[in-house]
Amino acid sequence: MATAALVTRTEKDADRDLVERHRYGDETAFDEVYALFGTMVYNLALRMLGNEADASDCAQETFLRVHRHLGGFRGRSGLKTWVFRIALNCCRTRVRRRMRRRRFLDFGRDDLVARAADRDRDPEEQAAARETSRAVHDALAAVKPVYREAVLLRDLHGFTYEEIATVLGVRIGTVRSRIARGRDELRRVMESEE
Amino acid sequence: MSIHCSLETLSAYVDSELPDVELRLVESHVERCSECRDHVSRLEGIAGHVRRLELVSVPATLVPEIGRRLRLQRDRQPLSSRIEEELRRAARAPMLAPLFALVFAFSVILYLFSLGVSMRSTSGTRMVIGGTSADISDARAADAGGGAGAESERSADEAGVQAGVSVASDESPAGTEPAHRVLAGRLFTLYDGVWTEEGVRGRAVDVVIDVGSGDELPRGLEEIGGVAGIYRMLDGGTIVEIIVPAPPGE
Lengths: 194, 250
Fold this sequence. Notes:
With 194 residues, chain A is mainly alpha-helical. Chain A has nine helices and no strands.
């Protein structure tokens, strides 16, 4: 418990330091924020939106907003949850826009699976892993966005329920329920495709 | 009939996100209930699949593109808001600006103070002739014409009192250079509180009174000379020079 408190305090201090440096016009502070969360945000957007082009646009939009508002970040939540909240808002806007245009999510496979780091595996294992990854990636497209985001935050990015509640702006009970339903939907989709 | 755990509870159990009491209850139930155990293993499998999705590396174009858009955004910002932003940054910068402001304000105050001192030191002796003094009743002043000055310059000494005028004095500070002033085109110097014009008929003038038009000259004084507008009179042992300003337009 003491260790957890210590970690939290250290993280908060680090967040505060980054924000202060950004306020004073230190551009390297923003670079550090990008280095910390760039890959995670891009991957969240990729799994939420399903294709690289949209994920790239969404990640750009997220970090432009982060750059614009970082000086006003008050540290009530962690920097990580704040950045992910912005990223999810960008994703939701894009998803809604697509829904309005009555278009299905373009869950193009690109070469995501092939590019996933699968070094140190023998060819058979690589093939199997690619197949599973592809199946999961496709199945995620069929899960409701509201459940999908909860599942991704938990299982892909390892957020705690409390952090997810902060990012989504809901109660922990709701987080529990969304994750459970999301996993259940994902399981059903995957089983139906087998 | 057996009671099973809800999907939500089992999902939270998989994530170790249950409160301690609930966790122990669910744990013991799952050990006994094969149906719930199956659910748990299915949930673990799904969570594991998502967890094993490897993080895809960010496209190489993403960072340069963000940099480009940031520069674009900055350039598009109106000048006023850019200035505002700079000011905000300056205000947040270490407290150098207030320090400079303090030093500047202090030097301004110092300058104004020194200016005030020098103005006072050069203002010399000032005396007001009431013009209605009982002793000033000679009608000769009326002939000299009207000026506007009701104020006159003179020293604060008893000579003024002898001349029957009220005196308000401020003397030049001790240790400073004698003050000079020009009256009716002639240079006078303040010595020991007395404005004098040296070398006039071999003797200094003791008191110079600058009267306004309509003021009367002191009575009972012996006129010992003078030119137009300047009367030199003798009051006992004191030489008094009375200057009547020239009428306007002359």
